[in-house]
Amino acid sequence: MTETATLEPPAARTLPLDVESTRNDFPIFRNRSVENPFTYLDNAATSQTPRQVVDAVEAYYTQYNANVHRSIYAAGEEATEAYESARERVGSFIGAGDSHAVVFTRGTTEAINLVAYAWGRLNLREGDEILLTEMEHHSNLVPWQLTAQQAGASLRFIVEACFSEKTRIVSVIHQSNVFGTINNVHKITSLAKSVGAVTLIDAAQSVPHLHTDVSALDCDFLAFSGHKMLGPTGVGMLCGRTELLDQMEPFLAGGEMIRTVSLDSSTWNDVPWKFEAGTPNIAQAIGLGAAVDYLSHLGMETIHRHEAAVTEYALEKLEEMPEVTIYGSAPERGGVVAFNVDGVHPHDLSQLLDRDGIAVRAGHHCAQPIMDKLNVSATARASFYLYNDFDDVDRLTESIASSLEFMS
Ligand SMILES: Cc1ncc(COP(=O)(O)O)c(C=O)c1O
Predict the structure, then answer these.
(1) Sign of torsion over alpha carbons 109, 114, 115, 120
(2) Nearest Cα residue to 190 out of 179, 199, 181
């Protein structure tokens, strides 16, 4: 059996956040017990929801449920104010200044599709190049495949190609959802600028975990999802340079995105509403506003240091196990660890860990090209957030050890 207990005991190390009191804010953890434990290590897929977010969503439905931007009565005005206040708070959370506008979307996937479609249709021509990395999540690859096909443009990948005058857009993942690698996106945006290319940052895995400042990153577009940062599902954001959003035609059409409509033509509302056709996800947007308040209260620098300490401990413990292979070794990394265990398929491992109340992801993590490169079809993945601690890591490694024993 694998020994997992030779490291310095976690008690001798300290964590920046008080996990016990933080977990008290999360009903899902409060509802579990020693007999029914829940060690949640699948935060790269989605995060848990604090009471403050649930309360904000509930308050909307129970106190002022009405549509936004069109209802001239108290509840409607309150809803509009709460929705727009959430936009402002989420925008300021990512440092979106005067040069950028923030559009509510369903999530990162929709935000990237919006740019690939609306910016792509306007700007991409035959022979143009779209530059990505090979570690993109499918949601920052497949929309560009479609756009490239329609425009006659081609996809290039940063490892094999360089920036050139043909490069029209560079769309890159900030933090890998497979390896946790934090890419130097500022360097990428500078290089892109030097050839006159537009930039998009897939920040689905970075905005929830790293202090983000759009102005400092100097990107044109940045996309992220609410459900990975303590917010509700079904809401996310596209932060885009206003000048570019102004030039783009709408992505979806219908109510609220128009200024005037006649039977044969229409004119558009201002940015950001031009890109928010139909009734938006009002409750979810308000919930996302509460989520960024919660994160800001704890402090993104503190959250990052907390996750870094838990991740470092996890890497040390997993490296001690000879049966475990860890994928990815970038010095700059976030709280995501992909690994495999000799002789145990990751799907089996996930099920065995689940018997001990431990949730990890198993699969290709929506990044099949990078899995092909690794020559594996799937890995297990543990990903951490502000409510995880050293005990969670100990439970994980102990459960891996007993899974190995079970499979032998
Ligand atoms: C790096 C990255 N980009 C994009 C996405 C897509 O996010 P969503 O499914 O919330 O649209 C994910 C989700 O896992 C991701 O990890």
Answers:
(1) positive
(2) 199
Report whether residue 177 contacts ligand 1, using a CB cutoff of 6 Å: yes
Which protein residue has the closest C-alpha to ligand 1 atom 16? 177
Single-letter amino acid, residue 302: T
Angle at 12 (CA atoms; ends 9, 16), nearest 5 degrees: 115
181 lines ligand 1 (CB under 6 A): no
Mutate to test the pocket of ligand 1, among 177, 209, 222, 227 (most ligand atoms within 8 A of CB): 177
Per-residue pLDDT of the chain (408 residues; tens, 9 = 90+): 444 445 665 667 899 999 999 999 999 998 888 788 899 999 999 999 999 999 999 999 999 999 999 889 999 999 999 999 999 999 999 999 999 999 999 999 999 999 999 999 999 999 999 999 999 999 999 999 999 999 999 999 987 668 999 999 999 999 999 999 999 999 999 999 999 999 999 999 999 999 999 999 999 999 999 999 999 999 999 999 999 999 999 999 999 999 999 999 999 999 999 999 999 999 999 999 999 999 999 999 999 999 999 999 999 999 999 999 999 989 999 999 999 999 999 999 999 999 999 999 999 999 999 999 889 999 999 999 999 999 999 999 999 999 999 988
Exposure string of 293-330, with b = 16+ CB inside 10 Å and e = fewer, is: bbbeebebeebbebbbbbbebbbebbeebebbebbbee
Closest CA to 269 of 106, 119, 103, 123: 103
List of domains in the chain:
10-49+299-407 (3.90.1150.10), 53-297 (3.40.640.10)
> Is the beta carbon of 403 within 6 A of some atom in ligand 1?
no
* Token duo for residue 22: 């933080």
What is the distance between the alpha carbons of residues 268 and 249, in angstroms, rounded to a whole number? 9
- DSSP characters over 317-371: HHHT-TTEEEE---SSB-SEEEEEETTB-HHHHHHHHHHTTEE-EEE-TT-HHHH
Active site residue 239: no
Long-range contacts for 34-40 (Cβ within 8 Å, ≥24 apart)?
Answer: 36/357, 37/356, 37/357, 37/395, 38/357, 38/359, 39/356, 39/357, 39/358, 39/359, 39/392, 39/395, 39/396, 40/359, 40/387, 40/388
pTM: 0.96
Any residues with CB less than 8 A from the CB of 293 and at least 6 apart, and which? Answer: 52, 89
